[in-house]
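Q: What structure does this chain adopt?
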Amino acid sequence: MTINLEVAKKVLSIVDKGLTSGLGVPQPGRMCVEAAVNYAFDRPHGDNPPCVTPALRLLKISLNDQPWSSYIARAKGLRRLALAQLGSTGVLDQFNFAHRISESVIRKQVPIALRAAASLLSGKSRTDLIAAAFLCEEKGTQDAVCHAMAVVYTTTDDARATSYVATAAQAAACAAANVANRAAAEAAILSINGVSAARTAAHAAAASAYAVGISLETSSSAAHTTDKVLGDFAEDVVKILIAMNAPGCQWLTLTEEPKS
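A:
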């Protein structure tokens, strides 16, 4: 699959027409982000473009299928990542990618969920959750997020907030665990673990968005915040790909506003 400026522009133009949850149909504005890439390359309808490495592809699918407020909001949140992923197959170190994603989720998404739960509480429960959020930000480790999960179960009495915050923490812990023992694993297992870590990272970001939505008073505010949390996570992934010199990042200039 030859990736050039023309193809990158085509991908972006298709994505900008809107993205659906789920595979959709082969028509701009009515398919998911990975199907949009296949469409741009004139490939059969599907969500498995060969130019996107498995860990990144599954992360994108999981993130695409979260409850963004609209087709256009989903497209706006994923347009830069849609370009950055191009050409990652055979180039991106999936284990390294998964490790970076796991740490980012623990440092950023899990604290969002913890603080959302804390906003519903007072006294020691509130203080303990905020302290757990700071620990995750500082350490970015599996131990930190496991501690946070224990704090959630012992301090939060709001059932809905507990569920979503715990989901975020558990997903982050799972992502971290999948990349914890590189030296002992064979290369094939590393690849599988990298894929699993990336996929669970997207679920952690979504759970954090839900937790924040629960803490807000209006559904419109919750929808806006969900889009922001998911969009911020997508941009965090883009930053990781830039740091790893992923080839698709060369086309990110297409998403930048022209200078006046």
